[in-house]
Amino acid sequence: MNTLHLTPDQIGEASAVIRRGGLLVFPTETVYGLGASAWDERACARIFEAKGRPADNPLIVHVFGTAMVAEVASAVPKVAERLFEAFSPGPLTVILPRGPRIPDAVTAGLDTVGVRIPSHPVAQSLLKASGMPVAAPSANRSGLPSPTTFHTAVRQMDGRVDAVIDGGQCSHGVESTIVRVSGERVRILREGAVTREMIEEVVGAGVASERAAGAGGAAEAPGTRHIHYRPRAPLRLVSTEELAEALRSHAHLRIGYIGLTPLRGNLTTIPAVSVYAGSLADYARRLYRSFYLFDAEGCELIVAERPAPTGVGRALRDRLMRAAQ
Ligand code: TXA
Ligand code: MG
Known about the structure:
By secondary structure, this protein is an alpha/beta fold. It has helices spanning 11-19, 41-51, 69-72, 78-87, 104-107, 121-130, 150-157, 196-203, 210-213, 243-249, 280-296, 313-324, and strands spanning 4-6, 24-26, 33-37, 60-62, 92-97, 112-116, 134-135, 163-165, 177-182, 185-190, 208-209, 235-238, 255-259, 273-276, 301-305. The protein has an eleven-stranded mixed sheet, with helices on both faces. The chain has a four-stranded parallel sheet with strand order 12-15-13-14, sandwiched between helices.
């Protein structure tokens, strides 16, 4: 398949791809998504093919604004409304009861649907111009890190989709926070840039993580059963104290380093490629991009510094731990 490369001023062409049942890779503020009309069962089935994604892993549905949430969900609890009001458009996905028009291919047969209102201007214009909800997982081949730049998105999906539209570098760099609501209770299924602290400011203390609560139970986010976020090179996740020793003991390998701590003295000469993050947000923004860079540079080992478990640090630790498995 010949894949069109579009610029942000070609929203008309991009939305035409969605409307005619095609596949479009588009930027969001978290990662690039691989989108199709959420009303179109066949187009959604093609998403699974293009990614090599297991059919039991449901897709998130992207809508333009809160008014459109009711078109894809059969009910919107008060607490979900408050969360959308506080964090949307932005990197938050809320699991809601599935609306009758949503096909099985989107939800993998579940009676719920994940709904998100992205804030990236290209995603916003696309959703507005398409006039329909867009189902989209991250635009990576299954098991690989999510693309956070146009270049890596094209590398993943060229020849597999109808078009890719350029939106530059994604500002958050890790996937959206996913929450499930039941009554007044909110549980986090996947950590992201909307942090637990931020959610608790809106709904009060006591927000739990669903995986921790229901360890291994059927309520788990389906996607957490599948391999994710993995670069080609093995990854060692180390504390700041372990960093120097981890680098020295693997100095014979071609190492890619990512972390917050600048290397000093002769440690600077050990990694072939070093990515220094200036803050937790910067670490998140650069993470997947660095995975692709380390792979392209032929690194044999990735050494990553474990960030503190505060704010977006929790999402980072989650992705790093999965990448290290
Ligand atoms: O930031 C993001 O969320 C990006 C951008 C493109 O929006 N999308 C993304 O999609 O990360 P994906 O498919 O790579 O991850 C979505 C996760 C999957 O683990 C899936 O299992 C889970 O959300 N999910 C989707 N619908 C669900 C549902 N109804 N119940 C539970 N989990 C669901
Ligand atoms: Mg994904």
